[in-house]
Design goal:
Enolase-like, domain 1, alpha+beta, 25% strand, two-stranded antiparallel sheet, single chain, 4 helices, 2 domains, 185 residues
C-alpha cells in the first residue's frame, strides 16, 4: 500500500539512495556491500564550491567479508563523492578497523567506539550500521528459519511480531513460545 498523497504541494530538495546486497563467495565466505548516494536536484552551494544539480554530494561504498559466524574478516570502503574532496575520502582506509568485529555481538557499539564522531565519517558509519541486518537477510534461507538447532533462533525477540510471548512465535516457533506474564506473580 502506498503512502497517502501529501496534503500540500511540495518540492523535492534532496534524495538519498541506499542499496545493500549480500553475496555467497566460492571460498565459503560472504560479502556484504552497501552503497549510498545523496543528490540535490538543484545547484548546491558549499564552502568548498558549488555542486551542479544531480552531482552526488555523497557517493560512498563499503564491503565487508564475513564468515558463517558473522565475524568480519575483511573490510574496505571507498568514497567517490563527498563535499570536501580529498578530506572526506581520506577516512576510507580506517574502515578496515571493522575487521575482527562480530556483526551479531556488539557491532554497532564497537563501530561507534572505533569510528564514531571525528574518528570516522558520519555518513559512512551510518551506512555501515546497516550491515548486520543485510547480513542476516543474506544468510536467510541457508537454514530453515524455524529449524531446531538447540538454541533460540536469532530473529526471536528482535521485533514486536516475533516476541517470544506473541502469537506468531506460538504458531511458528512453539518450542520457544513463552506465555505472557500476568503480573500477578
Amino acid at each position: 500500500m502506498p503512502l497517502p498523497l501529501p496534503s500540500t504541494l511540495r518540492t523535492l530538495t534532496h534524495s538519498r539512495r541506499v542499496s545493500l546486497a549480500g553475496y555467497r563467495r566460492a571460498d565459503g565466505l560472504w560479502d556484504v556491500e552497501a552503497h549510498m548516494t545523496d543528490v540535490k536536484p538543484h545547484d548546491y552551494w558549499l564552502s568548498s564550491g558549488t555542486l551542479p544539480a544531480g552531482t552526488p554530494v555523497h557517493d560512498m561504498l563499503v564491503r565487508i567479508t564475513i564468515d558463517r559466524q558473522f565475524n568480519v574478516v575483511a573490510a574496505e570502503a571507498v568514497i567517490d563523492g563527498a563535499p570536501y574532496d580529498g578530506h572526506c575520502s581520506s577516512i576510507a582506509p580506517d574502515y578496515a578497523k571493522l575487521v575482527g568485529l562480530n556483526l551479531m555481538h556488539g557491532f554497532r557499539k564497537a563501530l561507534r567506539e572505533r569510528l564514531g564522531g571525528t574518528l570516522g565519517c558520519s555518513h559512512m558509519s551510518e551506512l555501515v550500521a546497516q550491515l548486520p541486518t543485510i547480513a542476516l537477510q543474506t544468510f536467510a534461507g541457508e537454514v530453515r528459519d524455524n529449524e531446531d538447532r538447540g538454541h533460540k533462533p536469532f530473529q526471536l525477540d528482535r521485533c514486536r511480531a516475533l516476541e517470544t510471548h506473541g502469537e506468531a512465535v506460538r504458531r511458528y516457533y512453539p518450542r520457544w513460545y513463552r506465555a505472557a506474564r500476568t503480573g500477578a506473580e
